[in-house]
Amino acid sequence: MHDDTLSHHELDTDPFTGAELGAILNYRTAIEGISDSFTEIDPQDFVTLGAFGPNAVRDHLGDLANCLNTWFLALDTALSELLTCTAKATRYSTAAARFLKAETASYHQARQEFEHAVTVFLLGRDTSPMGDYPRFTSTLNLGQQTLEGPS
Question: How far apart are CA 69 and CA 63, in angstroms?
Answer without folding.
Answer: 10
